[in-house]
Amino acid sequence: xxxxxxxxxxxxxxxxxxxxxxxxxxxxxxxxxxxxxxxxxxxxxxxxxxxxxxxxxxxxxxxxxxxxxxxxxxxxxxxxxxxxxxxxxxxxxxxxxxxxxxxxxxxxxxxxxxxxxxxxxxxxxxxxxxxxxxxxxxxxxxxxxxxxxxxxxxxxxxxxxxxxxxxxxxxxxxxxxxxxxxxxxxxxxxxxxxxxxxxxxxxxxxxxxxxxxxxxxxxxxxxxxxxxxxxxxxxxxxxxxxxxxxxxxxxxxxxxxxxxxxxxxxxxx
Length: 269
Ligand SMILES: Cc1cc2nc3c(=O)[nH]c(=O)nc-3n(C[C@H](O)[C@H](O)[C@H](O)COP(=O)(O)O)c2cc1C
Ligand code: SF4
Ligand code: SF4
Hints:
Elements: E1 3-7, H1 13-25, E2 28-32, E3 46-52, H2 60-67, E4 76-83, H3 90-97, E5 104-111, H4 125-147, H5 159-178, E6 183-184, H6 193-197, E7 203-206, E8 209-212, H7 221-225, E9 231-232, E10 248-250, E11 256-258
Parallel strand pairs: 1-2, 1-3, 3-4, 4-5
Antiparallel strand pairs: 6-9, 7-8, 10-11
Helix pairs in contact: 1-4
The chain binds flavin mononucleotide and iron/sulfur cluster (SF4) (2 copies).
One iron/sulfur cluster binds next to α7.
């Protein structure tokens, strides 16, 4: 039986890493983590999860999808947390979420460019390039370890995460209160890409206007991918630079897709 990798990704970092691992280990299908219950995960040889770190944890919606999965006794499972500064408690979250499942868990983390535009703009271009070059090397290394079914150690929270844990909690709580305060500016072209892209179907159309509901997973996809830079939020500062993974595009169905035959990546900034 083949392998399956479930991904959760707003701006394409986790998605492109999932695609990279898929290519390296072969015989693997990719599926959105939020659709995981549509798959019989226990029937696959290897099950992988690739997801971003939010507020030094696994995004709640991603964690509950993982918890809800049925997995086989002794099944090989790997988790890759993508992060921009601190992976925090993410792998510990996964370990705890799978603790009653009797699987063999491999833990990995990969540093990526940051995407939390409500806090900061895109990293400088040269730094993005530097990080993404290292990502490629890490994909090959991790794929080799996955194929070898090598035992990995626990990835525990680093010092920064421990020090700033309560600050991150406050930020997360603040965002849960004002998460639905996104709005579309005048330059909106009514293409509705954001509506198709939103992983929680949180954006609806009423009389041609966009309305953000209360189910926001904070993935930043709507704001970062908008072709008109028309999505905003009270926490968004003027002239903040946008970021999406330069190797990923949005296809006609409004889904993330790896650029095929690209001779060069497209950086937004
Ligand atoms: C709401 C939010 C919170 C984030 N919190 C953290 C964090 O605590 N630590 C960190 O290193 N990166 C954090 N990031 C950055 C992302 O984890 C990182 O850029 C990730 O690769 C994005 O993945 P994606 O492109 O697949 O969505 C955060 C991003 C968002 C949107
Ligand atoms: S993606 Fe941007 S331009 Fe298209 S509907 Fe959404 S806000 Fe408007
Ligand atoms: S509303 Fe925007 S930020 Fe929130 S989950 Fe949907 S696409 Fe992501």
